[in-house]
Write a structure and sequence with these properties.
The protein is an alpha+beta fold. It has one domain (2-160). The chain contains 3 helices and 7 strands, in the order ββαββαβββα. It has helices at residues 47-55, 104-114, 156-160, and strands spanning 2-9, 41-44, 65-72, 78-80, 122-126, 134-138, 147-154. The strands form 2 sheets. A 4-stranded mixed beta sheet has the order 2-6-5-4. The longest helix has 11 residues, at 104-114. The termini are far apart.
Length: 164
């Protein structure tokens, strides 16, 4: 399975490690599906959603380019919520983010850790930005099982400044 991760660059090219999940604990309280103490790797099932995830964050006007990476996961490595006995809270898509939705990543990691045998690497979750596309939360301790490559560098400033 292929998933995508994007990063907005505000200056010249810098290294982008698509498997670095340390930013997931960088938010004030964490992000949509994780709290500040639970590191998780956020990816998207489609490239355009990965780009959109970058574009909706504060600071859009300073992004000069977006770098997009494709990450390859082993077949059958992504679980659905129901397969793990998990449910999203009813307010998972609230804005601002509700604290109870931030428990999903921890619940995923704890559930997988307790499973016998073959364990999923990722969890498929809905996107708050798209009714038809999904994100995949990846267990950062399993990144050694993944391959990745940079596939695009988009000059984002030209996309932003096309209207006059």
């Amino acid at each position: 399975m292929k998933v995508y991760r994007a990063r907005g660059l505000r200056g010249p090219w810098t290294d982008f490690d698509p498997l670095d999940s340390s930013g997931s604990v960088g938010g004030i309280n964490g992000w949509r599906f994780n709290d500040k103490s639970t590191e998780i790797l956020y990816t998207a099932e489609v490239e355009s959603l990965a780009v959109l995830e970058v574009a909706v964050r504060p600071g859009l006007e300073t992004i000069l380019q977006i770098v997009i990476a494709q990450i390859e996961l082993p077949d059958d490595a992504v679980a659905e919520l129901h397969q793990l006995g998990m449910l999203l809270p009813s307010n998972w898509n609230a804005r601002p983010v509700a604290n109870d939705s931030r428990t999903i990543a921890r619940e995923f990691l704890d559930t997988v850790a307790a499973m016998p045998g073959k364990k999923p690497i990722g969890l498929r979750v809905p996107s708050v930005l798209s009714a038809t596309n999904h994100n995949v939360l990846i267990d950062p301790s399993r990144k050694g099982e993944l391959t990745h490559k940079i596939i695009h560098r988009l000059p984002f400033d030209t996309l932003r400044n096309t209207g006059s």
